[in-house]
Design a protein that fits this description.
The protein is globular, with a radius of gyration of 17 Å. Helix 2 packs across helix 3 and helix 5 runs antiparallel to helix 6. A hairpin with a 2-residue loop joins strand 1 and strand 2. It has an 8-stranded mixed β-sheet with strand order 1-2-4-3-5-6-7-8, sandwiched between helices. It has one domain: Rossmann fold (3-Layer(aba) Sandwich), CATH 3.40.50. The chain has about 260 residues and is of the alpha/beta class. The two termini are about 30 Å apart.
């Protein structure tokens, strides 16, 4: 069944692909109904576990304001519930923040770690998305686009971004249902307070940190800080912004090679 009772949550999850276990942790506002996990290129080589994080998609919200540690513990508890004692982990954006805390708090679970378009927090936070979310709905997309890709100019087709612009604008301009809006707000608050710096040096998993050259949300300097702190970490910079995985075809192949290597 796609629903599991995990702690105080009812968590929605899906498996896709076949092979070694791979946990996918999604970004801000992630909802499996929109992120299309069945189309991940990594499904060809791995058994991917995808899930809606607390308060998002079809997973319940729990009680009170969660901290980043709660999101990390949710991921660990879900893995235990499906019978996984060790797996590779790919965390993207907010999911990369969760993955850092997961590797710090549950080192026995994480085999290889991939951190995409993310930040260590503290003195090097990601862009304050909570400020964008406070804007009227019709203004959000205009605020999001230049931080998604710093090359963005209204009316110009940015390589690899143009085809997604309309889709993204539609999603950001739409009002969210009350439950989803509340869950997203709690996620953004946890994101605002994210700081994994004190624990990064203790991460023992081989780690690939991926960044987009034109990312205005998680700039390359933030990825460099993560790599400098984790003992066995490598940095790869791709030609794109915050969604470089869709803009630069080399990205997913490099991630695949790292996980299989």
């Amino acid at each position: 069944m796609p629903f599991l009772d995990v702690g105080d949550l009812t968590m929605y999850h899906e498996f896709h692909g076949d092979g070694p276990p791979l946990l996918h942790i999604s970004g801000s506002g992630g909802d499996l109904r929109r992120t299309m996990p069945s189309s991940s290129p990594l499904n060809a080589d791995f058994c991917g576990l995808h899930y809606d994080q607390r308060g998002l998609g079809r997973t319940s919200g729990g009680e009170g304001q969660p901290a980043m540690a709660d999101f990390a513990d949710d991921a660990a508890a879900l893995c235990a519930a499906v019978g996984w004692s060790r797996c590779h982990v790919v965390g993207t954006s907010f999911g990369g923040m969760v993955a850092q805390h997961l590797a710090i708090r549950h080192p026995e679970l994480v085999d290889k770690l991939v951190l995409n378009c993310t930040s260590p927090g503290g003195a090097q936070p990601s862009y304050p998305l909570h400020e964008i979310q406070e804007l009227p709905p019709e203004e959000r997309a205009d605020a999001w686009m230049p931080v998604l890709d710093t090359r963005y100019v209204p009316g110009e087709d940015i390589p690899g971004l143009g085809a997604l612009t309309s889709y993204f604008r539609e999603g950001q301009s739409a009002e969210q249902p009350p439950d989803a809006a509340a869950g997203f707000a709690r996620q953004l608050e946890a994101r605002r307070l994210h700081d994994a710096n004190a624990g990064l040096a203790g991460i023992g998993s081989p780690t690939l940190v991926c960044a987009g050259r034109y990312d205005g949300i998680a700039p390359v300097s933030n990825a460099e800080a993560i790599v400098a702190a984790i003992p066995d970490a490598t940095l790869e910079v791709f030609e794109g912004g915050h969604i470089f995985m869709l803009q630069d075809p080399r990205a997913m192949e490099r991630i695949r090679e790292f996980l299989l290597g």
